[in-house]
Amino acid sequence: MQLDFFPSKTLTFYLAKLFIVRIAAVLVMLVLVLLMLDLLASTGDILAAEGNGQGELLIYAGLRGPQLMAQFLPYSVLLATILTLLVLNQNSEVIAMKAAGLSAHQILAPLLLTALAVSAVSFLFNERVVTRATATLKAWEASDYGVIPASDDARSNLYLTDGENVLSAASLSGTGADIVMRGVTWYRRGPDGLIVEQIRADRATFANPGWQLTDARRFTVENAGLRTVPQITVAPQVTPDQVDLTSVDPDAQSFFELSQSIDAYEEAGRSTSTLRARWWHKLSGPLSAFLMPLLGGIAAFGLARSGALFVRALIGMALGFAYFVIDNAALAMGSFGGYPPFLAAWAPFLLFLLIGETVLVRTEE
């Protein structure tokens, strides 16, 4: 039995079933509670937009839900690990398994395999659902919950310089010459650097060169005059390539889309440290679910009657939450250039993999 990494087929399926049911239950509980709190904070802003009602609240929940699921899935795996192992320990099932000759690693093996499958599903879910929901939600928020943008290529918060002037847009969609900006503002500066003119429009398209604003509102500082202009072209120095590069949002792009954005940045001679750190984290982030059974595995062992079982559960929770804190800190440092991108994304994972394995071996093997 010691030579087999997994226990018997029956026991493997039994443990995996217990684990996956608890992961789903904890995840649903966390997402529902957090989504309710998020809706309480955002409902006023959503309903403030003209024409919005219950349907828009449901749309918001549908876009925010995938984000919460992706963010808190590793937490759910950690809590499900501790709950599963506590119940097994209290029912003396762990003692029975160890008496049958199973090692600590063999007891945890079905949980690790299940967590690895959850990590794979999480990666695919992030690629196909979360990135699109994030792009749409950010663009919708940037337009003050007005017109809901298309989800395929929606982006938000553009800010570019046109010589001494400034062009900004709340949201945009499309690529290249087909880019359409919404919530556009162009600021013209004088020789002293102060803004002397402001032009706002709901929509702008590429005019080659420049960007054509339709039904623009033109405000001149000199005479405080405001007038409507049917069409006007601004920002001739801003090209579609610049817009595409500036509007890259790592959270709203899939793994392969972000790879193309990084290549474009490198061709333009721009720094890619921030994007590369987030690119690596698209792999290490979902894989963190695989790490949770190892960090929470300490809760499986120790006598339930000894009084140390609760302490072991706390240690497992502390290790898991410490990982998330250090992972976020390392990713932030990588975004600012403090760590190399690969180290920022993978160092916390490898560090806690060694810590979890060391704790397990020292206490149980």
TrEMBL record:
It is a multi-pass membrane protein. GO terms for biological process: lipopolysaccharide transport; transmembrane transport. InterPro entries: LptG (IPR030923), LptG/LptF_permease (IPR005495). Its main location: membrane. It comes from the Bacteria. It is found in: Cell membrane. The keyword Transmembrane applies. The keyword Transmembrane applies. Keywords: Cell membrane, Membrane, Transmembrane, Transmembrane helix. PANTHER family: LIPOPOLYSACCHARIDE EXPORT SYSTEM PERMEASE PROTEIN LPTG (PTHR33529:SF2), SLR0882 PROTEIN-RELATED (PTHR33529). NCBIfam families: LptG_lptG. This is LPS export ABC transporter permease LptG. It comes from Parapontixanthobacter aurantiacus.
